[in-house]
Amino acid sequence: MKFSSFALAAVAIAASSVNAFSAPKFNGARVAQHTFLKATAVDADTKTALQTAANEARGLAMDSIAAAHSGHMGLPLGAAEIGASLYGSQMQYNAADPTWINRDRFILSAG
């Protein structure tokens, strides 16, 4: 039940951010646009970009599982949209400085 509530919240958050990939920058860091759970129309470009990111994540997950000859595909394939939505519109991070102190951290645990 926790996962389905989280998934619905992530989808609602992704749907509420219209300009997901043009967040304001502060000293080179990407600052998240904080939105609350409200249903709004999703811009077609944003929806396409998030879907492409989710599909790329799925492909990378399948490639790494195949290369390792071990692993479970369920979680990486099922949670790709959650990761794309969070990293695409909600989380604060700076790709140029991965040790940035104000970055958001995301921990996904299956158990």
TrEMBL record:
Q: Which UniProt keywords apply?
A: Metal-binding, Signal, Thiamine pyrophosphate, Transferase
Q: Which cofactor does it need?
A: thiamine diphosphate
Keyword field contains Metal-binding: yes
Q: One Pfam family, short name please?
A: Transketolase_N
> Signal sequence span per UniProt?
1-20
The GO biological-process annotations, alphabetized, read as: pentose-phosphate shunt
Identify one Gene Ontology CC term for this UniProt entry. cytosol
Where is each Transketolase N-terminal domain found? 51-111
GO molecular-function terms, A-Z: metal ion binding; transketolase activity
- What is the designated name of this protein? Transketolase N-terminal domain-containing protein
Supply the source organism for this entry: Pseudo-nitzschia australis
